[in-house]
Amino acid sequence: MTWLGPEEWQAVALSLKVSIWASLVTLPFGIFTAYALARWQFPGKQVVNGLVHLPLILPPVVTGYLLLLTFGPQAGLGGFLQQFGISFAFRWTGAALAAAIMGFPLMVRAIRLSIEAVDPKLEQAAATLGANPFWAFATVTLPLILPGILAGVILAFAKAMGEFGATITFVSNIPGQTQTLPSAIYAFLQVPGGESAALRLVGISVAVAMGALILSEVLARRAARRLGGL
Amino acid sequence: MLEVSLRQPLDGFTLDLSFEAPAGVTVLFGGSGAGKTTVINAVAGLRHPESGRVALNGRVLFDLGKGLWVPPHRRRLGYIFQEARLFPHLTVRQNLLFGRWFAPRGAVREDLDRIVAMLGIGALMQRHPVALSGGEKQRVAIGRALLSSPDLILADEPLAALDEARKEEILPYFERLRDELKVPMLYVSHSAAEVARLATSVVVLKDGQVQRQGNAAEVLGDDRVMPTGVRAAGALLEARLLRHHPDGLSELDAGGVPLFLPQVQQAPGSLLRVRILAQDVILSRHRPEGLSALNILPAEVEQIRSGSGPGAMVSLKTDAGRVLARITRRSAQALELSSGTQCYAVVKSVAIARSDVGGAVPVDD
Question: How many domains does chain A have?
Fold first, then answer.
């Protein structure tokens, strides 16, 4: 990558690492939350739904500050986790956490929609054929929502690639540690002569985002075709 | 044997019933909203009733008085739904074998090839459900239920979503299930024709109560329990197919009485069930001559029943079995019919529809 300077390349690599972790580690939680919201009736469901969607509507700075209050070194939970060697403060893990929280509602929405498109009667049919709820989910629901899951992961990944406000508030803008692609663009724009570097990064950003969107669109269409075959 | 007792408040009435289903096909018969699906779903474990107990061959599926509830996946029942509910992401073959993954190791396994041949779905095995017709889907659904090695088969109006031609395509497979497999079946239906073709025993439901229980001939002869009205009442005769005539008729022998029907598919020698609707039977005091109708059965009046309407239901004893005739009260008076009167029951051959003649179709190889 000769056309990218080392600092730029560092930002791109860090952003990819942060986004992949953020979208993959949250996936099991995303599937579980989506399933619970789509299929189960439980007290406080609206509260859970609201909490999941909160990062989507809160100013990212607020989300970042709340993360700092919760997971920062001075905070209770942050201090507690530090005893086990898990630290988020001013490290790439913190950037991943911020990106994960911001992408979570998008992931849950995509997966939830695909679960709701699966007729619960199919799960009943699986039950009468001897599948317990876990296996009914694993052999019937999961394969049918796979395109939705992929779409959810891609959306969360794309969101993570672009996440700025919460990240910079929570873990600052440290090159090599927490300086993701958007933070790097921001930093380059602050110094004279940084425009060309910023522009290159902007190009990469746009390409990644477009690629992700197109891919998720293709998968959504494939899902619709598949479920149309009931 | 299946023992069912249930209580469940529903819209406008309380389902409160108990019945026992012997081996063979037991049809839960009733109009829509009678509570049939509630019963079958409680047996399957898909719906939790307020109270009740269901046991299958002594194995308790639930007994809510004792707080016992076996979840549906451990009940070992094969459920054939109204809409086939095939898994769209699996091929026909994978759908058929789905239940096998979960069957206990010791379970008696139905042979895949045998079931596939019986249902005539060999050519469909690699297809996905989206590429199947309604009738094909339902045949695969039947096979899928059978191959899960069930102790009981449940069928909830499996033909209701199909058109007449498709019904005619599927019914013989249910007849074959009844005749060739030993698995008992609980079959929900509102169609008297299906009762006539399939039922070993019938439980008539109305407003959540058992209105009547008996064998198919008894229930079909009782116009008061027909959910679709008196027009569905009729007799059910057992007859052996003698031969097919070149003019398109089939000759049957019903207890020594010859019966002529429009040609049936079955092979000579097979035992058939023939449903003769009461409204298609004409009565005559003398053996009619110069009449186009081919079936003339010497009969003796057993009973005449009438209500406030113009109609009367005459039940007749013939060598072929009990035959019902629905005539007007005026005719009954004019003919001076009473219990013990000798007369003749006349049935037009063409009045007996193909769908009123039951029996297993020959196995194709």
Answer: 1
User: Which segments of chain A have a pLDDT < 50?
Assistant: 1, 229-230
Contacts of B101 in chain A (CB under 8 A): 130-131, 139
Tell me the per-residue pLDDT of A70-84, one tens digit each, with 9 for 90 and over. Answer: 888 777 777 777 777
- Contact between chains at A130 and B79 (C-beta distance less than 8 A): no
- Assess if residue A1 is contained within a domain: no
Chain A residues closer than 8 Å to B77 by CB? 128
Domain span at residue A219 reads: 6-227
Print the SS3 string covering chain B: CEEEEEEEEECCEEEEEEEEECCCEEEEECCCCCCHHHHHHHHHCCCCCCEEEEEECCEEEEEHHHCEECCHHHCCEEEECCCCCCCCCCCHHHHHHHHHHHCCCCCCCCCHHHHHHHHCCHHHCCCCHHHCCHHHHHHHHHHHHHCCCCCEEEEECCCCCCCHHHHHHHHHHHHHHHHHCCCCEEEEECCHHHHHHHCCEEEEEECCEEEEEECHHHHHCCHHHCCCCHHHCEEEEEEEEEEECCCCEEEEEECCEEEEEECCCCCCCCEEEEEEEHHHEEEECCCCCCCCCCEEEEEEEEEEEECCCCEEEEEEEECCEEEEEEEEHHHHHHCCCCCCCEEEEEECHHHCCHHHEECCCCCCC
Of B52-61, B248-257, B307-316, B335-344, the least confident: B307-316
Nearest chain A Cα distance for residue B129, angstroms: 7
Tens digits of residue pLDDT in B56-77? 999 999 999 899 999 999 999 9
Q: Which of B72, B83, B154 sits opposite A127 (nearest CB)?
A: B72
pTM over 0.90: no
pLDDT 10s digits, A146-181: 888 988 999 899 999 989 999 988 888 888 888 889
What is the domain-level CATH number for residue A107?
1.10.3720.10
pLDDT digits (tens, 9 = 90+) for B181-220: 888 999 999 888 888 888 889 999 988 899 888 888 888 8
Q: Nearest-CA residue of chain B relative to A122?
A: B85
- By C-alpha distance, which of B89, B174, B163 is closest to B127? B89
Please report the ipTM that was assigned to this predicted complex: 0.80
Predicted confidence at residue A226, as pLDDT, reads 62
Domains of chain B, CATH where assigned: 2-224 (3.40.50.300), 236-358 (2.40.50.100)
